[in-house]
Amino acid sequence: MMLLGALALTLQLSAVAPSLPPLPPLMVRAGDRLQSVPTLRHPDGGIGVRADALAQALGGQVVTQSAGSARFRLEVGTTGMDLEAGNALVVVGGDTIPLRAGVFRRGGQFYVPLALATELLPRLGAGVLFDQEKAELRRFSTVTAARRTPTTRARAETPRAPAPSTPAPPAPADNVRSAPANRSAALRQRVVVVDAGHGGPDNGMSGPIGVPKKVFEKNITLSFAKQLRAALEQREIQVVMTRTTDTLIALGDRGRMANQAKADLFLSVHVNAANPRWTNPGGARGFETYFLAEAKTEDERRVAAMENEAIRFETDADVTRDDPLGFIMRDMAQNEHLRESGRLAELLQAGMKQVHPGPSRGVKQAGFRVLVTAFMPAVLVEIGFGTNKLEAQYMTDIERQRELASTLADAVVRYLEQYERKVGGGG
What we know:
Blueprint: H1 3-14, E1 26-30, E2 33-37, E3 39-41, E4 47-50, H2 51-57, E5 61-64, E6 71-76, E7 79-84, E8 89-92, E9 95-98, E10 104-106, E11 109-113, H3 114-123, E12 128-131, E13 136-139, E14 143-144, H4 150-157, H5 185-188, E15 191-196, E16 206-207, E17 215-216, H6 217-234, E18 238-241, H7 251-260, E19 265-272, E20 287-292, H8 298-308, H9 324-330, H10 332-353, E21 360-366, H11 369-372, E22 378-385, H12 389-395, H13 398-423
Parallel strand pairs: 1-13, 15-18, 15-19, 19-22, 20-21
Antiparallel strand pairs: 1-2, 3-4, 4-11, 5-6, 6-7, 8-9, 10-11, 12-13, 14-18, 16-17, 20-22
Helix pairs in contact: 1-3, 6-13, 10-13
């Protein structure tokens, strides 16, 4: 969570003594526009934020059941939260979530605890993030419509051969290149979620081994995720980013954000790290793609444990919740997604073979928490070993990122085309 930034704002707002003028407002930025949202001292301590002004600043609204009702609904984007004055609970999509303090009413206006704005809204994927340094709430759009400018299409199509007049037979897995010029209307409506692993206080992997100047997984994944977004947009596919800045998103919330966006695919990007007990950990190289299933090998369990360790940064997370394997056994719909996830993983892995300098470590399976809550084909891609000096240099090179992102985008297109043929009866 963004507790440090929220705490800094709370201290800033609380620094005013009771005898002094009212607390300074919460600042909300939407593009170039900066708005102030009134705040009050919470009756139980802390800070309360005026609900209707908060919703308005974020482009949403507050809906009340009746003039004197204590219940209301705060809507931001596609996220709706049902609240009640005097209650410290919020209902979102049928889920009841405890708040740090209760909702209260003052002067005929509803006030919500500060943490609802700075912590809960970002977690729900409502297109909101909290800037810790500036103590500023920011509104942004995580869904990016496909760009279709002549420049973009020319750049995407230049290296492609002209499309044949009749459909070509499906290409083998190792040939995942596809021509964006023939993108179908159905394919253009597909939504892909790109998840940059780690973020905020969770640096993830740090490397390379034996090199003083370190690189962090969270920075590599965010940079690469943006390149992948651009490559998918060139192919006229809509993209949702779970994060576009250096912020922490709970592992379980990332998949829920994809569900909320009604996404077709979920791709989580990560950087691998060598086991320090290996004979030559600094020499470990290669790329691998995972889908959600029971780990079969010790190395698969190692990678899952390493990536799942990010949950320690989620201070209010229940680490016993959402056990991956138990969840799969209870939900047969997810099992169908697992079969599709395996096929998607094969195509992604085959695509990376074409450009990645490291060895292919294959398609693997393990119990990743970030994949559990995504009810769609979902994979986790380890694009290289950050503990290896050469691969760290490769993954931080923007041109190499673009090249790798392009081949992954082609693999996504190939998967979606195959899926369209399957559901359309043509495959």
